[in-house]
Amino acid sequence: MLVGMGLHTSVAMVTDGRFSGATRGPCVGHVCPEAWDDGPIAYVCDGDWIEIDVPEGRLELLVSAEEMRQRRETGAEKPNHPAPGVLAAYRKMAGSADTGAIWL
Q1: What is the pLDDT of residues 75-90, one digit of tens each?
Q2: Share of the chain residues as helix, strand and coil, in percent rounded to the nearest 5
Q3: What CA–CA distance (Å, rounded) separates 82 from 37?
Q4: Catalytic residue of the set 10, 20, 64, 96
Q5: Residues 4-23 pLDDT 10s
Q6: Is 20 considered catalytic here?
Q7: What is the spatial distance between Cα 62 and Cα 44, in angstroms, rounded to a whole number?
Q8: pTM, two decimal places
Q9: DSSP for residue 10
């Protein structure tokens, strides 16, 4: 999508999931703690700035501690729908990507 919009050289993609091998530009995947586990990525809003320091292996959401506290109090939205079959088992039993997303 970023390539199609011509943004792949000016916008980074940050995700707590996987992305295709066709992705171009700066990309950070498998960010942990993941959004589902109430990590900071769950509270990123449109327009937020994120600092990515590749040599240091650091990714930081640039919002004040007060703003982050308010966002956490409001809570992050999670899908509120039943998961079918294998997806239900995965939601229930798989660990976070930082531990290999293995069955617990």
Answers
A1: 888 777 888 888 888 8
A2: 30, 15, 60
A3: 18
A4: 20
A5: 888 888 888 887 777 776 67
A6: yes
A7: 10
A8: 0.65
A9: T
